[in-house]
Amino acid sequence: MNTPPRVFRLVIALCFASSAAVASPDYPDAVQGATGSPCPPPCTVCHESSSGGYGTAVKPFARSMAKVGKLDAEDAALVAPAVEKLRAQATDSDGDGATDIDELGAGRDPNLHGKGDLCGPEYGCGARVEPRGRIDGSALALSALAALALFARWRWR
Fold this sequence. Notes:
Layout: H1 3-20, H2 27-35, H3 60-68, H4 79-89, H5 100-105, H6 137-155
Helix pairs in contact: 1-6, 2-4, 3-4
């Protein structure tokens, strides 16, 4: 009976994968503060998907930011100086005539030629469509307990 060890390994891998998916949880707020955006931009302003992750910041705006600043996923304080350099250079990553910083300040995607609204709909008092990138401690604890229960059940059989 080889299934329980596989299930146990899968649950443990999912627990660790959930913590790896939140590489730069402070970057959206830092970009909002530095650009005056009406909302924190989604991770997809820089990354391929909302999961983010190392090596996935490949959008034109991300490349422009990387050219002017030595960004580090662990240090959101590096965002503001990079934004100021883009502002000074009047960088326009999508070539639509509006600078990246002006577009972000208006709540638009600097990677898309034209409108490309970033803020999207809000429901209720300041609700966010995209959750903040932090680990839910109770969900992690429940996942770990479930993994331990599965392992204990398998061992006592």
